[in-house]
């Protein structure tokens, strides 16, 4: 495939107006989230200057210096503008607890948390998608009920509880994996230390992908083009690959965007259980010591990551499923409209089949 046809396909799949609307929506959401994160300092009890000084001596000179540095004597809107401008230039302030740069503290832990989230997502995909396909193909049969029951158990078990069970079985009893710590370097030793935390993190969200995949498979099997393909004598393996699994790509992709958000939030407990020095443990320590600049910066970073993941999944949807490119938004029925039109309200034109 040459570069020109690929570029043409991308342009057809992602019109400029569609991309600009999605990017603008993400920018607005990030702005709202930045206002909410900035409000953390304003909502902190007491004088913001004393909060920023932390355990250090709150002499009048020190308070005046902090107020001048963070523009605390200015109106709130001006303070927000200064804070947002500094954050845009990667100046996230100074940690109250350590006195070091907040950006350096977060950057040193970002890689470990990124590796943990990536492995947790891999575990969820490897377990959730195949089990969801199996449950969909065995709809309402014993295998379907068994798989769904396992999904409910996994969803109902907190990540820290499954982590403790994994440590007891695979570290203390069998001795297959280390019980805690990040390991040395970034090779095999790091990977063996992250296996159990990634499994504990991934199991908690596997049921989400399982449910989405099962529902998509059941829906695709009921479509007319699958019935016609069977009537033409197409093999079941080809129907599964060419029709059913293709139709599940978009729902699963949407689920991946949600799962990443859950994984980022779940690292807080998992890193505590396995003594991993990542962003989750940094957030817990910062909240404990009321290190507001670190809490602000990390909350803004996590919110930005979730927004970017959702933006990527929104843009990939029309690329994977051409029916989404020209699908109009559903409209609300007019009061007094005929019953037939009432039933069409919110109807997805893509449901009309291919």
Largest beta sheet, briefly? none
What helical percentage do the residues reach?
Answer: over 70%
Chain-averaged pLDDT: 80
Counted by DSSP, the helix tally is 14
Radius of gyration: 25 Å
Distance between the termini: 26 Å
Please give a structural write-up.
There is one protein chain. The chain is mainly α and 354 residues long. The chain is built from 14 helices and no strands. The chain has helices spanning 3-13, 16-43, 48-53, 60-69, 76-88, 102-137, 142-156, 159-173, 188-221, 224-231, 236-273, 279-288, 292-320, 339-344. It is globular, with a radius of gyration of 25 Å. Residues 339-354 have low confidence and may be disordered.
Name some characteristics of this structure.
354 residues; mainly alpha; 14 helices; 73% helix
SSE order and pairing:
Elements: H1 3-13, H2 16-43, H3 48-53, H4 60-69, H5 76-88, H6 102-137, H7 142-156, H8 159-173, H9 188-221, H10 224-231, H11 236-273, H12 279-288, H13 292-320, H14 339-344
Condensed summary:
The chain is mainly alpha-helical and 354 residues long.
